[in-house]
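Below is one protein, fold included:
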Amino acid sequence: TLRDQRSLAVNQLSQSLDIHYYEAEDGSISVSTGAGQSLVTAGFSETLKTETAPPNGFYEVHLDLSDITSSIQGGKLGGLLEVRDQLIPAYQKDLDTLAESIISQVNVVQTGGTDLQVPPTSPAVNLFNPAAIVAGAAASFSVNPAVAADVRYIAAGQSGAPGDNANAIAFGELAFKQVLAGGTQSFSEAFSSLQFKVGTDQQNATKQLDTQNALLTQLNNSRDSVSGVSLDEEAIDLIRFQRAYQAASKFISVIDQLTEELIQSF
């Protein structure tokens, strides 16, 4: 029973992170992480715990006093860490680059035009609040409060003449201007590329999950064929034991009968 409980605990731990383990001749078991950090050795165990870390307050996985977060590659925990620390930051970087480019390009066109204020603002105010740095540009994307409060700050013209919409046309042309990815992508193309990347990563993850589940099923079947209980074998053994009992019972019955007849003959 204790060995079964221990095997169940090891299986549960392996679902959370990648581990290695082996059983010694005396029946004791040693467990380590996939990177080699010891978890259980000769009856001694180390403590796994999580702690928040600055600047973003993300959780780190600690083995006693050591941070092992970056060394975890497998299991549910490894998958969550890969999404949090690699995939999402990559998506955010692309989105921030797109947002910063939109902000800067639109503001260039805006400040180069003429608004409807009397007299016209010179130069025209920014349409979007400038991003100080690329990182975080998408999260801070916002319209200039002055423009939001008074649309006459929008520089739709260039000469200031009645009916002048040259700058408004320049705004529209930004949608087709290739300013991203080394001058090969427009705003919409860059966003579509980001969507494609996210979709491809999701599809690849689904395929890998199906493959790993198939391998897991195969390994479980191989393990059960060695350590599991076969109902067919148990049924055969039960019949064999039953027949042996019946034979022994018949043998005793015959001996009893012969003994009784022998006693009666004297």
